[in-house]
Amino acid sequence: MSAIPRLQHHFEDLPKQAHAAKLGMWLFLGSEALFFAGLFTLYAAYRAHHPEIFRLGVAHNDLVLGTVNTFILVTGSLLVSFAVNALRLGRRTWAILLTLGTALAGVAYLVIKGFEWARHMSEGIFPGGKGSFFVENPEPAWAIFYTAYYGLTGFHVIHVTVGVGILAWTAWWMHRERIGPAAAYKLAIVSLYWHFVDIVWLFLWPLFYLLRNPA
Amino acid sequence: MKNYLNHETTIWSWLSTKDHKRIGVMFLVSVTLFLLVGGVFALILRLEHLTPDSTIVSANMYNQLFTLHGVVMVWLFLIPAIPTGFGNFFLPIMLGAKDVAFPRLNLATLYIFWVGAIVMIYGILDRAADTGWTFYPPYSSVTYTKAGPVLLGVFILGWSTIITGVNFITTIHTLRAKGMRFMDMPLFAWALYGVSVIQILGTPVLGIVLLMVVMDHNFDWGLFDPARGGDPLIYQHIFWFYSHPAVYIMILPPMGVVSEIVSTMAHKNPLSYKAIAYSTFGIAFAGFLTWGHHMFTSGMSEFNAGIFGILSMTVAVFSAIKVFTWTGTLYKGSVWLRTPLLYIFAFLFLFIFGGMTGVAVAATSLDIHWHDTYFVVAHFHFIMVGASLTAFLAALYYWWPKITGRMYFEGWGVAGAVLVFLGFVGTFFPQFLLGNGGMPRRYYHYSEEFQALNVLSTAGSWVLGLGLLLVLVTLIWSLFTGEKAPANPWNSRSYEWMTPSPPPKENFFETPRIQRGPYDYHLPLERR
After folding, report:
1. Which of A59, A87, A164, B502 is 20–30 Å from B418 (CA)?
2. Per-residue confidence (pLDDT) for residue B517, from 0 to 100
3. What integer best gives the mean pLDDT of chain A?
4. What was the ipTM of the complex prediction?
């Protein structure tokens, strides 16, 4: 037996309540998109100011690690989509495992990202143009590039971390509440957030790893 | 009879409530408190300008005071006031719903608001920021004052705003009563829809850029420091991308209030429901394309400036559509000249004044002359105080019977309205002349030739302060001795008047079925 979600007193029926929850998540993601849009604007403007150093900075990043991370995140998104489908079909155990798989992908991403940051710091690259790297490369644009790098990837990492937490909690919740198809929409909403986090990375990947060749 | 106020009376029942009406009331109390705080700052500022040199505060403190006045008024009063107070209270009732879509999140917005406010107050008590409410870098990155907590407070408040926007749009889409189409909604709901769109799309952009300034200020990131390859102009662009639409966050809900009160007090259909509803979105949309007009003097090509100037003027077209529709609604109506309508008259007069000077400053050639002078200060106070605050007061009087179950005192209401209007004009009209004469804003000292007008402005601020005090005192007094309010004191057709005053906990005793529009004044009033 699986539990049916409780109908809150102000909704007529469950489908309407589910619709409201989904709509709310989409609106929130619209807001999140604009949050990152501000950061992308910052990047675009500074790249336009200092095209050459931004290109060199991108080339300095590890293309392989960035691409592996892309692969990991997209795989995670795929898994959570399967999880939603599994829950709709009533296969709770599969849904839980697949959701945990996505959370694991998130953790793998964080580990690789942390490794990249650690490497940058060992080279003397810190936000705000601090560290030995900037003594050797005194042009101010280097500082701006790496501050933008830490800023943008940092905000993305915060989102990934929150996402991993929510995914893990959702897996636990599915187990504890014996969630069935009727509440699959809740997992679908969580997956929406994860897809969003994934899509943001699909913008960060070119901005910080791919755009490295001279025009 | 049990209603939302007395079905439970413990303090905990308020603090833990998920009832949108109680949350709305708590927001109203909170923003009124901050209106008082911001108002006291303003009175001190005006007092300082009584003489051209030092009067009562030091130059540093003057810088801090105009910053705090701006920050408190913008983020703790103007932006939240009508949506979180009246919006929370009336949106579900107007839609025939029992609550907003996400009641728990709704309560969270109140707490987030208070956390943001407390963080901000901490920054205020300990070396308050002196950057101006716009926090322009590079100064904001290096100021010795506590800009960090104030910026962080604004960032936190942003979350409250965003969640409110998400909640309102979802509520409008999913919780309209059976039979209510979008075009049957009261116009206040349309205004809240429009403002929610701006809140959702604009606020995060402000949030991120202020967070960047926090990084610059507290951790020396140097993102906007020209010496380190940064560009302060980019800050200005991103800041105004939100903060100009923020003006429409402050004015669209008041416009919704005007639409309601005009129709009710004229007992007449709006001249065109559609014109009011659609122009809301015209303003919300055009509002996102005008931000550059704040930067005509900060290094912008003539071409860009021209485009931004023209786009800014389109806002006036949509606003004019509303103003003409409202006046057309009043024409040949059976008008009840009560306190709320008096404030609406003040709104119309001051809004047209503020709006038309806005068109004037959108013209680049004129803006160069007026930029950073008291002319601009007068212009935006005509919108923010002249329009937004008067509409807030109109809403307060209009919905007072519904919220509290008591009638206010008509005579005192009228007296307050007259004082507020006269005080406002006395305070801010001289500032147009001062600015045009060349007095710059945010300067501690001014030339002696400006003193006469400054004294007039300061005297005006006392009248305005007195008027607001009178409003506050008489309204609180009416809570205890006012007449019991009937369900529908204005003979309105709008849905919120179909339930008792104050409304029961679930808003209606039976699930409402919508059989007529909210402005069907040609139909007889149903008695219950």
Report:
1. B502
2. 87
3. 93
4. 0.92
The fold of the A14-210 domain, in CATH, is: Four Helix Bundle (Hemerythrin (Met), subunit A) (1.20.120)
pLDDT in tens, B158-177: 999 999 999 999 999 999 99
Contact B99 A34 (CB under 8 A): no
Name the closest residue on chain A to residue B201, using Cα atoms. Answer: A31
C-alpha distance from A121 to closest chain B C-alpha (Å): 15
Under the banding of pLDDT at 50, 70 and 90, the label for residue B179 is: confident
In the prediction, which pLDDT does A1 show? 45
Which residue shows structure tokens 């694991």?
A104
Report chain B residues touching chain A, CB-CB < 8 A: 92, 97-103, 162, 165-167, 169-170, 173-175, 200-205, 207-209, 212, 215, 219-223, 227-231, 234, 237-238, 241, 506
pLDDT of residue B485: 95
Identity of the residue in A28, A49, A128 whose CB atom sits nearest the CB atom of B221: A128
SS3 string, B398-433, reads HHHHHHHCECCCHHHHHHHHHHHHHHHHHHHHHHHH
CA distance A94 to chain B (A): 30
What is the Cα–Cα distance from A195 to A142, expressed in whole angstroms? 32
For domain B11-498, is the CATH number 1.20.210.10?
yes
- At A21-48, the pLDDT tens digits run 999 999 999 999 999 999 999 999 999 9
Q: Under a CB-based contact definition with an 8 Å cutoff, are residues B451 and B51 in contact?
A: yes
